[in-house]
Amino acid sequence: MRAVSGPIPGFSTWTTMRRLMPTPFLKLPEFLREGAARYGTLVSFATWWRRFVLVNDPAFVRDVLVTHQHAFRKSVGTASLGLLLGQGLLTSEEPFHRKMRRIVQPAFHRERIASYVETMNEFAGAFVERIEPGAPFDLHAAATELTLRIASTTLFGIDAGNDARDVSEAMHELMEIFPYVAGPIGELRRKFGLAKNERFDRARDTLDRIVYGIIARRRKDPSDRGDVLSMLLAATDAETGEAMTDTQVRDEALTLFIAGHETTATALVWTFYLLARHADVDARLASAVRDGDAEFVRRVFQESMRLYPPAWIFAREAMRDVTLSDGRTIAGGTTVFVAPLVLHHTPALYPDPERFDPDRWLDDAERDPFSYVPFGGGARRCIGEAFAWAEGVAVVSKIAAAYRLELVSEREVEPAAMVTLRPSGPVMVRAVPR
Ligand code: HEM
Fold first, then answer.
1. Residues lining ligand 1, CB < 6 A?
2. Which of 55, 104, 114, 281 could form a disulfide linkage to 60, CB 3.0–4.6 angstroms apart?
Protein backbone atom coordinates (compact mmCIF):
# COMPACT_ATOMS: atom_id res chain seq x y z
CA MET A 1 0.00 0.00 0.00
CA ARG A 2 1.27 3.47 -0.93
CA ALA A 3 2.38 5.52 2.07
CA VAL A 4 0.31 8.61 2.79
CA SER A 5 0.94 11.31 5.33
CA GLY A 6 -1.16 13.87 7.13
CA PRO A 7 -4.31 13.70 9.17
CA ILE A 8 -7.26 11.49 8.33
CA PRO A 9 -9.82 13.54 6.41
CA GLY A 10 -13.45 13.69 7.44
CA PHE A 11 -16.41 15.53 8.90
CA SER A 12 -16.02 18.34 11.43
CA THR A 13 -17.46 17.98 14.93
CA TRP A 14 -20.15 20.49 14.08
CA THR A 15 -21.21 18.58 10.94
CA THR A 16 -21.14 15.27 12.81
CA MET A 17 -23.37 16.56 15.59
CA ARG A 18 -25.78 18.22 13.17
CA ARG A 19 -26.04 15.13 10.96
CA LEU A 20 -26.26 12.42 13.62
CA MET A 21 -28.24 13.87 16.49
CA PRO A 22 -30.66 13.14 18.04
CA THR A 23 -30.88 9.56 16.67
CA PRO A 24 -27.24 8.68 15.90
CA PHE A 25 -27.73 4.97 15.29
CA LEU A 26 -30.47 5.43 12.73
CA LYS A 27 -28.60 8.13 10.86
CA LEU A 28 -25.19 6.47 10.93
CA PRO A 29 -25.41 4.25 7.80
CA GLU A 30 -26.15 7.14 5.44
CA PHE A 31 -23.58 9.34 7.16
CA LEU A 32 -20.84 6.70 6.87
CA ARG A 33 -21.73 5.91 3.27
CA GLU A 34 -21.45 9.56 2.39
CA GLY A 35 -18.18 9.85 4.33
CA ALA A 36 -16.65 6.96 2.38
CA ALA A 37 -17.81 8.42 -0.94
CA ARG A 38 -16.45 11.85 -0.08
CA TYR A 39 -13.27 11.16 1.89
CA GLY A 40 -12.20 7.67 0.80
CA THR A 41 -11.12 4.61 2.73
CA LEU A 42 -10.42 6.33 6.07
CA VAL A 43 -12.97 8.79 7.39
CA SER A 44 -12.70 10.73 10.64
CA PHE A 45 -15.53 12.40 12.52
CA ALA A 46 -16.16 13.49 16.09
CA THR A 47 -18.82 14.28 18.61
CA TRP A 48 -18.02 16.67 21.48
CA TRP A 49 -17.03 13.75 23.65
CA ARG A 50 -15.46 11.20 21.28
CA ARG A 51 -13.38 10.82 18.10
CA PHE A 52 -14.22 8.20 15.48
CA VAL A 53 -12.60 6.72 12.39
CA LEU A 54 -14.35 4.54 9.82
CA VAL A 55 -11.93 2.07 8.18
CA ASN A 56 -13.29 1.11 4.79
CA ASP A 57 -10.56 -0.80 3.00
CA PRO A 58 -9.63 -4.48 3.37
CA ALA A 59 -6.02 -3.58 4.31
CA PHE A 60 -7.18 -1.30 7.14
CA VAL A 61 -9.76 -3.81 8.31
CA ARG A 62 -6.95 -6.36 8.57
CA ASP A 63 -4.80 -3.78 10.40
CA VAL A 64 -7.50 -3.30 13.03
CA LEU A 65 -8.82 -6.85 13.42
CA VAL A 66 -5.58 -8.79 13.06
CA THR A 67 -2.23 -6.99 12.70
CA HIS A 68 -2.76 -4.51 15.53
CA GLN A 69 -5.56 -6.31 17.36
CA HIS A 70 -3.75 -6.08 20.69
CA ALA A 71 -3.80 -2.29 20.47
CA PHE A 72 -7.61 -2.34 20.48
CA ARG A 73 -10.31 -3.34 22.87
CA LYS A 74 -14.02 -3.68 22.34
CA SER A 75 -15.75 -0.32 22.43
CA VAL A 76 -17.94 1.43 24.98
CA GLY A 77 -20.95 0.34 22.90
CA THR A 78 -20.12 -3.29 23.57
CA ALA A 79 -19.69 -2.55 27.24
CA SER A 80 -23.39 -1.73 27.55
CA LEU A 81 -24.16 -5.20 26.21
CA GLY A 82 -22.49 -6.40 29.39
CA LEU A 83 -25.64 -5.31 31.26
CA LEU A 84 -27.29 -8.32 29.75
CA LEU A 85 -24.45 -10.65 28.88
CA GLY A 86 -22.07 -10.16 31.81
CA GLN A 87 -18.60 -11.42 30.95
CA GLY A 88 -19.53 -13.56 27.94
CA LEU A 89 -17.38 -13.97 24.82
CA LEU A 90 -18.90 -11.01 23.05
CA THR A 91 -18.24 -8.53 25.84
CA SER A 92 -15.17 -9.72 27.77
CA GLU A 93 -11.61 -8.47 27.30
CA GLU A 94 -8.25 -10.23 27.16
CA PRO A 95 -6.86 -12.27 28.80
CA PHE A 96 -10.18 -13.56 30.20
CA HIS A 97 -11.73 -13.66 26.71
CA ARG A 98 -8.97 -15.90 25.31
CA LYS A 99 -9.38 -18.38 28.15
CA MET A 100 -13.16 -18.57 27.73
CA ARG A 101 -12.89 -18.84 23.96
CA ARG A 102 -10.63 -21.87 24.40
CA ILE A 103 -13.23 -23.47 26.67
CA VAL A 104 -16.26 -22.70 24.49
CA GLN A 105 -14.67 -23.50 21.10
CA PRO A 106 -15.21 -27.31 21.22
CA ALA A 107 -18.99 -26.73 21.25
CA PHE A 108 -18.55 -25.46 17.69
CA HIS A 109 -16.30 -28.19 16.30
CA ARG A 110 -17.30 -29.71 12.99
CA GLU A 111 -18.81 -32.94 14.33
CA ARG A 112 -20.80 -30.97 16.88
CA ILE A 113 -22.19 -28.68 14.17
CA ALA A 114 -23.17 -31.78 12.19
CA SER A 115 -25.35 -32.91 15.07
CA TYR A 116 -26.97 -29.47 15.36
CA VAL A 117 -27.77 -29.68 11.63
CA GLU A 118 -30.17 -32.54 12.37
CA THR A 119 -32.08 -30.25 14.74
CA MET A 120 -32.00 -27.42 12.20
CA ASN A 121 -33.43 -29.70 9.48
CA GLU A 122 -36.08 -31.03 11.83
CA PHE A 123 -37.30 -27.57 12.86
CA ALA A 124 -37.07 -26.17 9.33
CA GLY A 125 -39.09 -29.18 8.14
CA ALA A 126 -41.76 -28.59 10.81
CA PHE A 127 -41.81 -24.90 9.86
CA VAL A 128 -42.51 -25.81 6.22
CA GLU A 129 -45.28 -28.22 7.32
CA ARG A 130 -47.02 -25.43 9.22
CA ILE A 131 -47.03 -23.00 6.29
CA GLU A 132 -50.49 -22.40 4.83
CA PRO A 133 -50.05 -21.87 1.09
CA GLY A 134 -51.36 -18.49 -0.04
CA ALA A 135 -51.92 -17.10 3.47
CA PRO A 136 -49.86 -13.94 4.17
CA PHE A 137 -47.46 -14.05 7.12
CA ASP A 138 -44.67 -11.85 8.49
CA LEU A 139 -41.43 -13.49 7.46
CA HIS A 140 -39.35 -11.61 10.02
CA ALA A 141 -41.50 -12.79 12.94
CA ALA A 142 -41.62 -16.34 11.56
CA ALA A 143 -37.85 -16.54 10.95
CA THR A 144 -37.13 -15.18 14.43
CA GLU A 145 -39.42 -17.79 15.97
CA LEU A 146 -37.70 -20.52 13.97
CA THR A 147 -34.12 -19.50 14.83
CA LEU A 148 -35.17 -19.01 18.45
CA ARG A 149 -36.46 -22.57 18.60
CA ILE A 150 -33.35 -23.92 16.91
CA ALA A 151 -31.14 -21.97 19.35
CA SER A 152 -33.20 -23.07 22.39
CA THR A 153 -32.79 -26.71 21.43
CA THR A 154 -29.19 -26.76 20.24
CA LEU A 155 -27.96 -24.58 23.09
CA PHE A 156 -30.16 -25.48 26.07
CA GLY A 157 -32.03 -28.59 25.05
CA ILE A 158 -35.44 -26.88 25.50
CA ASP A 159 -37.88 -26.84 22.63
CA ALA A 160 -41.36 -26.97 24.10
CA GLY A 161 -43.44 -26.09 27.12
CA ASN A 162 -43.38 -23.08 29.45
CA ASP A 163 -39.64 -22.48 29.32
CA ALA A 164 -39.64 -22.12 25.55
CA ARG A 165 -42.61 -19.74 25.68
CA ASP A 166 -41.11 -17.65 28.50
CA VAL A 167 -37.76 -17.49 26.72
CA SER A 168 -39.42 -16.36 23.53
CA GLU A 169 -41.43 -13.63 25.29
CA ALA A 170 -38.43 -12.39 27.27
CA MET A 171 -36.35 -12.27 24.09
CA HIS A 172 -38.93 -10.20 22.22
CA GLU A 173 -39.08 -7.84 25.16
CA LEU A 174 -35.30 -7.49 25.39
CA MET A 175 -34.84 -6.89 21.67
CA GLU A 176 -37.38 -4.12 21.84
CA ILE A 177 -35.98 -2.37 24.89
CA PHE A 178 -32.28 -3.00 24.47
CA PRO A 179 -31.52 -0.13 22.05
CA TYR A 180 -33.19 2.17 24.60
CA VAL A 181 -31.11 1.11 27.60
CA ALA A 182 -27.90 0.64 25.61
CA GLY A 183 -27.92 3.58 23.20
CA PRO A 184 -25.38 6.43 23.43
CA ILE A 185 -27.36 8.09 26.19
CA GLY A 186 -28.38 4.77 27.71
CA GLU A 187 -26.49 5.39 30.90
CA LEU A 188 -28.52 8.50 31.64
CA ARG A 189 -31.71 6.74 30.74
CA ARG A 190 -30.85 3.86 33.01
CA LYS A 191 -30.68 6.33 35.88
CA PHE A 192 -33.96 8.09 35.12
CA GLY A 193 -36.15 6.22 32.63
CA LEU A 194 -37.79 3.92 35.09
CA ALA A 195 -40.52 2.05 33.23
CA LYS A 196 -38.35 0.65 30.46
CA ASN A 197 -35.55 -0.20 32.85
CA GLU A 198 -37.97 -2.24 34.88
CA ARG A 199 -39.18 -4.08 31.80
CA PHE A 200 -35.57 -4.75 30.83
CA ASP A 201 -34.71 -6.04 34.30
CA ARG A 202 -37.82 -8.23 34.36
CA ALA A 203 -37.03 -9.82 31.01
CA ARG A 204 -33.41 -10.39 32.01
CA ASP A 205 -34.55 -11.93 35.31
CA THR A 206 -36.89 -14.28 33.44
CA LEU A 207 -34.04 -15.50 31.26
CA ASP A 208 -31.77 -15.82 34.30
CA ARG A 209 -34.37 -17.83 36.20
CA ILE A 210 -34.70 -20.26 33.30
CA VAL A 211 -31.01 -20.53 32.52
CA TYR A 212 -29.91 -20.93 36.14
CA GLY A 213 -32.74 -23.44 36.65
CA ILE A 214 -31.50 -25.54 33.75
CA ILE A 215 -27.89 -25.25 34.95
CA ALA A 216 -28.89 -26.48 38.43
CA ARG A 217 -30.82 -29.45 37.00
CA ARG A 218 -27.92 -30.33 34.73
CA ARG A 219 -25.36 -30.12 37.52
CA LYS A 220 -27.39 -32.84 39.28
CA ASP A 221 -27.51 -35.02 36.17
CA PRO A 222 -24.44 -34.19 34.14
CA SER A 223 -24.92 -36.63 31.22
CA ASP A 224 -24.13 -35.19 27.76
CA ARG A 225 -27.38 -34.33 25.99
CA GLY A 226 -25.68 -33.17 22.87
CA ASP A 227 -26.43 -29.48 23.39
CA VAL A 228 -24.01 -26.61 23.94
CA LEU A 229 -24.92 -26.31 27.62
CA SER A 230 -23.79 -29.89 28.29
CA MET A 231 -20.45 -29.03 26.75
CA LEU A 232 -20.05 -25.84 28.73
CA LEU A 233 -20.82 -27.63 31.99
CA ALA A 234 -18.39 -30.43 31.24
CA ALA A 235 -15.67 -28.22 29.75
CA THR A 236 -12.38 -27.60 31.45
CA ASP A 237 -9.58 -25.34 30.33
CA ALA A 238 -6.96 -27.50 28.57
CA GLU A 239 -4.18 -25.43 30.15
CA THR A 240 -5.40 -24.87 33.69
CA GLY A 241 -7.93 -27.71 34.16
CA GLU A 242 -10.47 -25.21 35.54
CA ALA A 243 -14.21 -25.71 34.99
CA MET A 244 -16.68 -22.86 34.56
CA THR A 245 -18.71 -21.37 37.39
CA ASP A 246 -22.51 -21.13 37.09
CA THR A 247 -22.23 -17.42 36.34
CA GLN A 248 -19.70 -18.05 33.58
CA VAL A 249 -21.89 -20.75 32.06
CA ARG A 250 -24.89 -18.40 32.25
CA ASP A 251 -22.98 -15.54 30.60
CA GLU A 252 -21.67 -17.71 27.78
CA ALA A 253 -24.95 -19.53 27.17
CA LEU A 254 -26.93 -16.29 27.06
CA THR A 255 -24.29 -14.67 24.84
CA LEU A 256 -24.48 -17.50 22.32
CA PHE A 257 -28.25 -17.40 22.46
CA ILE A 258 -28.52 -13.67 21.87
CA ALA A 259 -25.64 -13.39 19.39
CA GLY A 260 -26.86 -16.42 17.52
CA HIS A 261 -30.54 -16.23 16.79
CA GLU A 262 -31.46 -12.68 15.83
CA THR A 263 -28.50 -12.35 13.42
CA THR A 264 -29.36 -15.57 11.63
CA ALA A 265 -33.08 -14.70 11.49
CA THR A 266 -32.19 -11.37 9.89
CA ALA A 267 -29.93 -13.05 7.33
CA LEU A 268 -32.75 -15.45 6.42
CA VAL A 269 -35.31 -12.67 5.98
CA TRP A 270 -33.08 -10.66 3.65
CA THR A 271 -32.22 -13.80 1.69
CA PHE A 272 -35.88 -14.58 0.99
CA TYR A 273 -36.61 -10.93 0.34
CA LEU A 274 -33.89 -10.86 -2.33
CA LEU A 275 -35.06 -14.16 -3.80
CA ALA A 276 -38.63 -12.86 -4.02
CA ARG A 277 -37.36 -9.88 -6.02
CA HIS A 278 -35.11 -11.96 -8.29
CA ALA A 279 -37.20 -14.68 -9.90
CA ASP A 280 -34.25 -15.90 -12.03
CA VAL A 281 -32.04 -16.57 -8.99
CA ASP A 282 -35.00 -18.09 -7.16
CA ALA A 283 -35.65 -20.53 -10.02
CA ARG A 284 -31.98 -21.54 -10.08
CA LEU A 285 -32.08 -22.02 -6.32
CA ALA A 286 -35.09 -24.34 -6.62
CA SER A 287 -33.31 -26.58 -9.11
CA ALA A 288 -30.05 -26.44 -7.11
CA VAL A 289 -31.95 -27.65 -4.05
CA ARG A 290 -33.61 -30.40 -6.11
CA ASP A 291 -30.15 -31.49 -7.36
CA GLY A 292 -28.60 -31.34 -3.90
CA ASP A 293 -26.26 -28.50 -4.95
CA ALA A 294 -25.55 -26.93 -1.55
CA GLU A 295 -22.84 -24.73 -3.10
CA PHE A 296 -25.37 -22.57 -4.90
CA VAL A 297 -27.43 -22.26 -1.72
CA ARG A 298 -24.28 -21.07 0.05
CA ARG A 299 -23.54 -18.52 -2.63
CA VAL A 300 -27.07 -17.13 -2.35
CA PHE A 301 -26.71 -16.82 1.43
CA GLN A 302 -23.23 -15.30 1.02
CA GLU A 303 -24.44 -12.68 -1.45
CA SER A 304 -27.40 -11.86 0.78
CA MET A 305 -25.03 -11.20 3.73
CA ARG A 306 -22.91 -9.02 1.46
CA LEU A 307 -25.84 -6.76 0.63
CA TYR A 308 -27.52 -6.94 4.05
CA PRO A 309 -24.86 -7.88 6.64
CA PRO A 310 -26.83 -8.59 9.86
CA ALA A 311 -23.94 -7.31 12.02
CA TRP A 312 -23.81 -4.16 9.94
CA ILE A 313 -21.19 -2.41 12.09
CA PHE A 314 -18.79 -3.27 14.87
CA ALA A 315 -16.37 -1.16 16.82
CA ARG A 316 -13.05 -1.11 18.62
CA GLU A 317 -11.37 1.44 20.81
CA ALA A 318 -7.68 2.23 20.22
CA MET A 319 -5.80 1.90 23.50
CA ARG A 320 -2.76 3.69 22.03
CA ASP A 321 -1.72 5.34 18.77
CA VAL A 322 -1.82 2.83 15.90
CA THR A 323 0.00 3.27 12.60
CA LEU A 324 -1.93 1.73 9.72
CA SER A 325 -0.38 0.03 6.71
CA ASP A 326 -0.45 3.24 4.65
CA GLY A 327 1.52 5.09 7.34
CA ARG A 328 -1.33 7.16 8.76
CA THR A 329 -2.08 7.09 12.47
CA ILE A 330 -5.21 6.47 14.47
CA ALA A 331 -4.84 8.31 17.77
CA GLY A 332 -5.22 6.44 21.06
CA GLY A 333 -8.75 6.79 22.47
CA THR A 334 -10.38 6.84 19.02
CA THR A 335 -13.38 4.58 18.40
CA VAL A 336 -12.83 2.71 15.15
CA PHE A 337 -15.73 1.43 13.10
CA VAL A 338 -15.69 -1.45 10.65
CA ALA A 339 -19.00 -1.26 8.79
CA PRO A 340 -19.66 -4.28 6.57
CA LEU A 341 -22.74 -2.43 5.33
CA VAL A 342 -20.50 0.23 3.77
CA LEU A 343 -17.50 -1.96 2.89
CA HIS A 344 -19.60 -4.59 1.09
CA HIS A 345 -21.14 -1.94 -1.17
CA THR A 346 -17.84 -0.40 -2.26
CA PRO A 347 -17.71 -0.32 -6.10
CA ALA A 348 -13.91 -0.79 -6.16
CA LEU A 349 -14.35 -4.11 -4.33
CA TYR A 350 -17.65 -5.24 -5.86
CA PRO A 351 -18.42 -4.06 -9.40
CA ASP A 352 -22.07 -3.07 -9.73
CA PRO A 353 -22.35 -3.39 -5.95
CA GLU A 354 -26.13 -3.11 -5.60
CA ARG A 355 -26.74 -6.07 -7.91
CA PHE A 356 -27.79 -9.32 -6.23
CA ASP A 357 -25.50 -11.74 -8.03
CA PRO A 358 -24.61 -14.98 -6.22
CA ASP A 359 -22.28 -15.86 -9.12
CA ARG A 360 -19.86 -13.12 -8.18
CA TRP A 361 -18.64 -15.63 -5.59
CA LEU A 362 -17.76 -18.24 -8.22
CA ASP A 363 -14.20 -17.04 -8.72
CA ASP A 364 -13.29 -15.29 -5.53
CA ALA A 365 -9.75 -16.65 -5.21
CA GLU A 366 -8.38 -13.18 -5.99
CA ARG A 367 -10.59 -11.45 -3.47
CA ASP A 368 -9.02 -10.09 -0.28
CA PRO A 369 -10.75 -12.01 2.56
CA PHE A 370 -11.02 -8.74 4.50
CA SER A 371 -13.30 -7.27 1.83
CA TYR A 372 -16.08 -9.55 3.13
CA VAL A 373 -16.45 -9.48 6.90
CA PRO A 374 -20.03 -10.32 7.92
CA PHE A 375 -18.53 -12.42 10.73
CA GLY A 376 -15.69 -10.06 11.68
CA GLY A 377 -12.11 -11.31 11.80
CA GLY A 378 -9.09 -12.05 13.98
CA ALA A 379 -9.31 -13.24 17.56
CA ARG A 380 -12.86 -11.87 17.98
CA ARG A 381 -14.22 -13.46 14.82
CA CYS A 382 -17.70 -14.91 15.25
CA ILE A 383 -17.48 -18.25 17.02
CA GLY A 384 -20.88 -19.23 15.57
CA GLU A 385 -19.98 -18.68 11.92
CA ALA A 386 -20.09 -22.36 10.91
CA PHE A 387 -23.31 -22.73 12.91
CA ALA A 388 -24.85 -19.77 11.05
CA TRP A 389 -23.82 -21.10 7.63
CA ALA A 390 -25.23 -24.52 8.48
CA GLU A 391 -28.49 -23.02 9.70
CA GLY A 392 -28.78 -20.69 6.71
CA VAL A 393 -28.23 -23.48 4.21
CA ALA A 394 -30.56 -25.89 6.05
CA VAL A 395 -33.45 -23.44 6.37
CA VAL A 396 -33.12 -21.92 2.89
CA SER A 397 -32.95 -25.40 1.33
CA LYS A 398 -35.98 -26.74 3.20
CA ILE A 399 -38.20 -23.76 2.43
CA ALA A 400 -37.03 -23.33 -1.17
CA ALA A 401 -37.62 -27.02 -1.91
CA ALA A 402 -41.31 -26.67 -1.10
CA TYR A 403 -42.23 -23.05 -1.73
CA ARG A 404 -41.48 -19.82 -3.50
CA LEU A 405 -42.03 -16.94 -1.08
CA GLU A 406 -43.78 -14.07 -2.79
CA LEU A 407 -43.86 -10.51 -1.39
CA VAL A 408 -47.36 -9.28 -0.64
CA SER A 409 -46.32 -5.72 -1.47
CA GLU A 410 -43.89 -4.63 -4.18
CA ARG A 411 -42.75 -1.75 -1.99
CA GLU A 412 -39.08 -1.83 -1.16
CA VAL A 413 -38.31 -2.83 2.44
CA GLU A 414 -35.84 -0.43 4.03
CA PRO A 415 -33.27 -1.84 6.44
CA ALA A 416 -33.27 -0.35 9.94
CA ALA A 417 -29.80 -0.22 11.43
CA MET A 418 -30.52 -1.27 14.99
CA VAL A 419 -28.24 -3.69 16.85
CA THR A 420 -28.67 -5.85 13.76
CA LEU A 421 -29.70 -4.75 10.28
CA ARG A 422 -33.38 -5.59 10.57
CA PRO A 423 -36.16 -4.87 8.13
CA SER A 424 -37.82 -1.60 9.17
CA GLY A 425 -41.27 -3.20 9.34
CA PRO A 426 -43.00 -6.54 8.81
CA VAL A 427 -42.00 -8.39 5.64
CA MET A 428 -45.31 -9.84 4.54
CA VAL A 429 -45.02 -12.84 2.21
CA ARG A 430 -47.20 -15.66 0.96
CA ALA A 431 -45.94 -19.10 0.07
CA VAL A 432 -46.60 -20.46 -3.40
CA PRO A 433 -46.04 -24.22 -3.79
CA ARG A 434 -43.30 -25.14 -6.29
C1 HEM B 1 -25.64 -14.71 10.28
C2 HEM B 1 -25.39 -14.90 11.56
C3 HEM B 1 -24.29 -14.20 12.34
C4 HEM B 1 -23.60 -13.05 12.05
C5 HEM B 1 -23.77 -12.13 10.87
C6 HEM B 1 -22.65 -12.85 13.14
C7 HEM B 1 -21.74 -11.82 13.19
C8 HEM B 1 -20.77 -11.67 14.17
C9 HEM B 1 -19.71 -10.67 14.16
C10 HEM B 1 -19.50 -9.63 13.07
C11 HEM B 1 -18.96 -10.85 15.26
C12 HEM B 1 -17.71 -10.08 15.65
C13 HEM B 1 -18.04 -8.80 16.36
C14 HEM B 1 -16.80 -7.98 16.67
O15 HEM B 1 -15.72 -8.28 16.19
O16 HEM B 1 -16.94 -7.01 17.40
C17 HEM B 1 -19.55 -11.94 16.00
C18 HEM B 1 -19.10 -12.41 17.21
C19 HEM B 1 -19.71 -13.42 17.90
N20 HEM B 1 -20.75 -14.21 17.50
FE21 HEM B 1 -21.70 -14.10 15.73
N22 HEM B 1 -22.80 -13.86 14.05
C23 HEM B 1 -23.77 -14.72 13.58
C24 HEM B 1 -24.19 -15.88 14.17
C25 HEM B 1 -23.76 -16.34 15.38
C26 HEM B 1 -24.18 -17.57 15.99
C27 HEM B 1 -25.12 -18.58 15.35
C28 HEM B 1 -23.58 -17.62 17.22
C29 HEM B 1 -23.67 -18.69 18.28
C30 HEM B 1 -24.44 -19.74 18.26
C31 HEM B 1 -22.76 -16.43 17.36
C32 HEM B 1 -21.99 -16.10 18.46
C33 HEM B 1 -21.05 -15.09 18.48
C34 HEM B 1 -20.15 -14.86 19.61
C35 HEM B 1 -20.13 -15.61 20.93
C36 HEM B 1 -19.31 -13.81 19.24
C37 HEM B 1 -18.16 -13.21 20.06
C38 HEM B 1 -16.90 -13.95 19.68
C39 HEM B 1 -15.66 -13.48 20.43
O40 HEM B 1 -15.47 -12.27 20.64
O41 HEM B 1 -14.86 -14.36 20.79
N42 HEM B 1 -22.89 -15.68 16.22
N43 HEM B 1 -20.64 -12.44 15.29
1. 89-90, 101, 255-256, 259-260, 263-264, 267, 310-311, 314, 374-376, 380, 382-384, 387-388
2. 55
